[in-house]
Write a structure and sequence with these properties.
This protein is α+β, with helices and mostly antiparallel strands. The protein has helices spanning about 5-15, 35, 75-85, 110-115, 120-130, 135-145, 165-180, 185-195, 220, 255-270; strands at about 25, 40-50, 55, 195-200, 205-215, 230-235, 240-250. The chain contains 10 helices and 7 strands. A 7-stranded mixed β-sheet has the order 1-3-2-7-6-5-4, sandwiched between helices.
Length: about 270
C-alpha cells in the first residue's frame, strides 16, 4: 500500500483538484488480467469512499488523458438542467433532425432521460449549442473537468475536439456528482444522478455512463468503428459506494459490450460489489 504522501503526489500529477479526496492509494496490477482475458488492454481506477481509498490497475494508463466521448453527457446533462436549457428531463422533447443514422435508437424524438439511455449524440450536440460556448466554458472550468479545453467546436469538443480527461480525473468529477457538491444546483445534480442507467449486480447496483471514441453523429452514418471505450460511474452495495472509471481498447466489436463485464469483475476484485 502507498500511503497519503505518495497518493497526494500521484493525484497532483494527474492534475486533480489540489484538495485530495483520498487518504490512501493502491496499485493492483492483478486487475489488468481482466482486460487481457478479454483480448484487449485498458485501465481501471476506483475510489472506495467508505475506506477513503483509491485503487488503480496501473500508474500509467490511469493518468493518460483522452477524449471523454459520451461520458461527457454527464456534465452536459448537469449544465443543461442548471441553465434551464432542459427544464424537465422527462417532458422537454428534442425532435429528431430527420437524418437517418446507423444507430436506430437515435432516429426518433427524445427526452433527456431517453437520450442519455441510448447515448444519442445529436441530442446532446443540440443541447451544447443551446448552452453556448461562453456558458459551457464557465461550467467546465467550475467543474475542473479534465483539461478544461472546449476547443474544436461547441458541438464536437468532447467527440473529436480538444477536451481530454483521464480515469483519475473522471473519478474525481463523478465523486462530486455522487455527493452533490458540484458548483451547480442540487436539483440539476439530483436529476442527473437519477437519469443515469442503472445495472443490477447481485445485491449491488451500478449507475454509469458509457463512451466510445470514434463514434459520433457523422460516424453513425458512414460506419467508422470505435477505437476506445469508456465506462464511468459508481457502485452501491448497502451503504458503501465506490466511484470508478474504466477505459479499454476496442479491438473487436465484442469489446464494447465487455466494458460492463470487466468493470463488474474489477469491482468484485476490490470488494466493491
Amino acid at each position: 500500500m502507498i500511503h497519503r504522501r505518495h497518493a497526494l503526489g500521484l493525484i497532483a500529477a494527474s492534475v486533480l483538484p489540489q484538495r485530495a479526496f483520498a487518504d490512501s492509494f493502491e496499485v493492483r496490477e492483478s486487475l489488468l488480467r481482466r482486460f487481457t482475458d478479454e483480448g484487449t488492454s485498458g485501465a481501471f481506477a476506483a475510489f472506495k469512499s467508505g475506506e477513503n481509498l483509491i485503487v488503480v490497475s496501473d500508474k500509467t494508463r490511469t493518468l493518460g488523458a483522452i477524449l471523454p466521448a459520451s461520458t461527457f453527457k454527464i456534465p452536459n446533462s448537469i449544465i443543461a438542467l442548471d441553465t434551464g436549457v432542459v427544464a424537465d428531463p422527462d417532458k422537454d422533447v428534442f425532435r429528431w433532425d430527420g437524418v437517418t443514422r446507423s444507430i436506430p435508437d437515435w432516429n426518433k424524438d427524445h427526452t433527456l432521460r431517453s437520450a442519455i439511455a441510448v447515448s444519442a449524440v445529436p441530442v446532446y450536440q443540440e443541447i451544447a449549442r443551446r448552452i453556448g460556448a461562453e456558458r459551457m466554458q464557465k461550467y467546465v472550468d467550475a467543474f475542473d473537468y479534465g483539461n478544461r479545453n472546449i476547443g474544436g467546436g461547441i458541438d464536437r469538443f468532447w467527440l473529436t475536439g480538444d477536451l481530454r480527461i483521464n480515469p483519475m480525473q473522471q473519478i474525481a468529477f463523478v465523486d462530486k456528482l455522487r455527493r452533490g457538491v458540484l458548483p451547480a444546483s442540487k436539483r440539476a445534480q439530483e436529476l442527473t444522478r437519477d437519469i443515469l442507467t442503472v445495472t443490477k449486480a447481485g445485491d449491488s447496483i451500478i449507475r454509469a455512463k458509457t463512451g466510445l471514441i470514434g463514434v459520433d453523429d457523422r460516424t453513425a452514418i458512414d460506419g467508422v468503428k470505435a477505437s476506445l471505450g469508456w465506462l464511468v460511474g459508481w457502485a452501491e452495495k448497502g451503504g458503501a459506494q465506490t466511484v470508478f472509471a474504466l477505459n479499454l481498447d476496442i479491438r473487436e466489436p465484442r469489446h464494447s459490450a465487455s466494458r460492463m463485464a470487466i468493470a463488474q469483475q474489477c469491482l468484485r476484485d476490490i470488494g466493491a460489489i
